Fold this sequence. Notes:
Layout: H1 18-25, H2 27-37, E1 41-44, H3 47-62, E2 67-72, H4 79-87, E3 91-94, H5 97-105, E4 113-115, H6 122-130, E5 134-137, H7 140-153, E6 157-162, E7 167-168, E8 171-172, H8 181-192, E9 198-204, H9 212-231, E10 238-240, H10 253-267, E11 284-286, E12 289-291, H11 306-314, E13 316-317, E14 322-323, H12 324-330, E15 334-337, E16 348-359, E17 365-369, E18 388-390, E19 401-406, E20 421-423, E21 432-436, E22 457-461, E23 467-468
Parallel strand pairs: 1-22, 2-3, 2-15, 3-4, 4-5, 5-6, 6-9, 9-10, 10-15, 17-19
Antiparallel strand pairs: 1-16, 7-8, 11-12, 13-14, 16-17, 16-21, 18-21, 19-20, 22-23
Helix pairs in contact: 3-11, 6-7, 8-9, 9-11
InterPro entries: Ala_racemase/Decarboxylase_C, De-COase2_N, Orn/DAP/Arg_de-COase, PLP-binding_barrel, Y4yA-like
Pfam families: Orn_Arg_deC_N
Cofactor: pyridoxal 5'-phosphate
Amino acid sequence: xxxxxxDKHLSLTPIIHDWVQxxxxxxxxxxxxxxxxxxxxxxxxxxxxxxxxxxxxxxFDRYALAHKIFFARKANKCLSYAKAAAAAGEGVDTAxxxxxxxxxEAGIPGxxxxxxxxxxxxxxxxxxxxxxxxxxxxxxxxxESLDSIVRAxxxxxxxxxxxxxxxxxxxxxxxxxxxxxxxxxSLISEQIEAHPYLTFKGLHFHLNGYSVEQRVAAxxxxxxxxxxxxxxxxxxQHLDIGGGYLVNYLANxxxxxxxxxxxxKAVLGQRPALTYQNDALGMVLIDGKLHGEPxxxxxxNEMYKGLFLEKILTSEAxxxxxxxxxxxxxxxxxxxxxxxxSLLDQAGITVARVLFRKQDTEGNLLxxxxxxxxxxxxxxxxxxxxxxxxxxxxxxxxxxxxxxxxGGYCLEQEFLLKRKIQFATYPQIGDLIVFPNTAGxxxxxxxxxxxxxxxxxxxxxxxxxxxxxxxxx
Length: 473
């Protein structure tokens, strides 16, 4: 099998929460859980989730800001997190009829829910109206659908207006969502304000990417709109600045930077490949030159979660030359955020069983797991976090070996990770592979049941490592 001495220097060591460390130390419990629930299984905990809520609240409280945290439920389908958010006095951002209905059936009041779904059909809008859920309006067709519903039912509805097209660096930030600032002013002042059944509550935006500077520019322009509305007697109660708060997955900055450098060398043919068939992870090689950067999540970050939010709040708004937190506080506005991934940081792991070992036609070791690639998939070109190999082999028999993890779909590209992985020992059938920190977007966002494979079970671990299945259908 192919191995290289360089592989051992390219670890991407994950940060591991204490509850996961304790669980990994109990090999028998881990093996029994996989046996009971089948492979793969998502083992989760609401402990880190509650800690992450507290982290954000600490930042808001530091600047004495009225605030509300809405968990972006699309990041993980388990209802336990929505319940935990509501129990903490916060809210839930719902993006579909089922997400909204489940939250309501779980006893979460409509006042603690918002509806941001990219597509809102009549049934979804009617449910939101009937349950007094704040509806984020994205386009005029949505507005007109809502208008017809509330007039027919003669019932009031709360709305916020999604904004897009912010100016930044002498350009317009591209987006397929929301109204321009000019369109929003006209809609709010000319139609909503005079509407017998619609009540304007606030403004909303969500920016793609992770730029603090772009968010500051967007907030600055939102405040200008808020002031313009106030000048004609329209009060804005809240400003929702969406999600996209960075997470730090990795323990070592040098490892992350080294991998980036070595990946480029590999694609250029200057060192052995780091990925299957030297996949460039989104970069393009043309005439011997690399173009672009890897299309992957920035897995190592030093400004993340609460630090990321605080950087936004303490940045100066260019129009007003004041800190963002001062602008918000002076106007008595509730500042809202919609974290998904960052509230789920360290809240879950995915565990799968080794079923086979083989070599491909090029001599690469392939380790087959009892799962498919959609059960560990996000928009990132690869999940650049080292998995953990759990084996019952005796220590003296261990000898490192490198290879690739493959899944159950009958496709040539069915690789769970494109990156070559170094195992402490040759994997044995029945060994377990643990993917750390997968609760946010990795477990559920793209999972599918092609080949009629069952979806992974979702179980929860409490402080005493007792395993339960509170979300079982």
